[in-house]
Amino acid sequence: MSARTPQPVAYQRNALAPGVLAAIALFLAPLLIGNDWFLLIRFVVAIFAVIVGWFAIQAKQWWWVPVFAAIAVIWNPVYPFEFSGPFWVAAQPVAAIVFLVAGGLIKYQPAESDSKKR
Questions:
Q1: Partners of 108 in the beta sheet?
Q2: Does residue 94 belong to any structural domain of this protein?
Q3: Structurally, how many domains does the chain consist of?
Q4: pLDDT (tens digit, 0 to 9) for every residue of the chain, 118 residues total?
Q5: Which structural domain, as residue segments, surrounds residue 59?
Q6: pTM attached to this predicted model
């Protein structure tokens, strides 16, 4: 049996885990609108929007930054916008899909010097 040397990873999907967690929260959000627990959803979504936006900056995929800046502002818990109605309910799964798509598409390719350090 020959020992193989591990090959460096071609890219990393750092935004996938926070994107999935935010999507889970957003898919549950329509059940919690009007409830005190919706404040927790706002915190989770706003924080993960900033995190995914940061990973987009690291991956040099700048077109995601305004999308997640808008999500962070709309779902912000500090100065919340009091949205209601069917459009606000429909915005929850739409934002969840945006998080999932971004989590799958944002790829960070480490520099050659980063992979040699390991």
A1: 12
A2: yes
A3: 1
A4: 567 777 766 888 889 999 999 999 999 999 988 888 999 999 999 999 999 999 999 999 999 999 999 999 999 999 888 888 899 999 999 999 999 999 999 998 877 655 555 5
A5: 30-109
A6: 0.83
